[in-house]
Amino acid sequence: QVQLVESGGGLVHAGGSLRLSCAASGSIIRINVMGWYRQAPGKERDLVTTITSSGTTNYADSVKGRFTISRDNAKNTVYLQMNSLRPEETAVYYCNAEVEYYSNGYWRKSNYWGQGTQVTVSS
Fold first, then answer.
1. What tens digit of pLDDT does each residue of 58-115 get?
2. Residues near 65 by Cβ (< 8 Å), separated by ≥ 6?
3. pLDDT at 1 over 90
4. Are strands 2-7 and 57-59 parallel, antiparallel or unpaired?
5. Is 1 helix (H, G, I), strand (E, B) or coil?
6. Pairing of strands 10-13, 117-122
7. Distance between CA 113 and CA 105 in Å, rounded?
8. What is the pLDDT, as a whole number, of residue 94?
9. Residue 44: partners with Cβ closer than 8 Å, 6 or more residues away
10. Of 6, 82, 88, 98, which sees the most CB atoms within 10 A?
11. How far, in Å, CA of 30 to CA of 121, rounded?
12. Measured between alpha carbons, how far is 61 from 58 in angstroms, rounded to an integer?
């Protein structure tokens, strides 16, 4: 069906930057909204940012001005540039996408999650 594979997480000092990528693969017809969420230990998964297929973006207030989401529709890939990272933003970051795809000759639409990538920001 469809897979989302994330990359780019790691360890960075406070104030540093990281760039995450998430590539979708499979029998994809179209990807609608793509986004990034994060989940810190013991906390719920929270929205970070989303982007529509036409490029309209939405950001959580806490990341506005520091994070930038973008996408390459030809590559079915979404990116997250994170600048001025803070220790409290240490979390597993998950990619999410609403995907229209073919399955056994039928059109389907489902929401998919990546496996997550760890981002650790040291103080």
1. 999 999 999 999 999 999 999 999 999 999 999 999 999 999 998 888 999 999 999 9
2. none
3. no
4. unpaired
5. coil
6. parallel
7. 23
8. 98
9. none
10. 82
11. 34
12. 9
